[in-house]
Amino acid sequence: MNSFLIGLQFLTRIFVVKQSVWTEKSFGESVKFFPMVGAVLGIICAGGVGALNFVTAGNLPPLTGAVGFAASIVLTGGIHCDGLMDSTDGLFSGREREKILAIMKDSRAGSFGVVAMILVAALDISALAELARLSTWFLCAAVYSAPIIGRLMMVVTIGAFPYARAEGMGKAFAQFTTRRTIFTAAGETILLLLPLNLIGEMFFICAAAASLIALLVTWRFATFATGKIGGVTGDIYGAVTTLAETSALMTFLLIGNGLR
Known about the structure:
The protein is mainly alpha-helical. It has helices at residues 2-11, 24-30, 34-55, 61-76, 79-91, 97-105, 111-134, 136-160, 169-175, 179-193, 201-229, 234-258. Helix content is 78%, strand content 0%.
């Protein structure tokens, strides 16, 4: 339970109990619970946008999309979006390895990062709005699933790719994450997504397809980053989480439109 709470506090702005002393081992042991952290975010966001879409009778999908995107940012403190912006600023700078790492560590946002964030925000808000038009249940299933899938992809990246820096907060995750951790997180994800069958078998199928697409996106981005800097960093962990969530929402939307 302590490891889960550490993961929850680190990846979100949700505080259940105050964690004042964190060790590298406690960080590492929290990784296997990342999909569960995603489930907490998914339940809160799905409940919020589902209620809004129900109250508005589905007549204000742009508002639902905007609220859904904003809720995710508020609950996570934008930590993963920051990772996406820093990663794209560095990886697409055209510089050598050390300069790329320095750019990624810089807290200032560059043009590549801003453009990447605008594109992701546009895709997320549009996807949520269109899902709201499909049905409230489709919207809730997608919003619940995306954070779980996104954090599973973070675990995959942590465990399957080398850490690029000599030191850093992300290194604590990498040191204590093994293939067993990945399989544990994958099994946890399946269990968390199984309840989707209660509202319709198609929703679990959508989630499974979304997971596969997210894995392809994650693997491609992490491989690209590894080719540039010899591994991944904490920023890239955040970037793959954001990209995986977006790809999951888009997958739900494409399947949902195909069923109409």
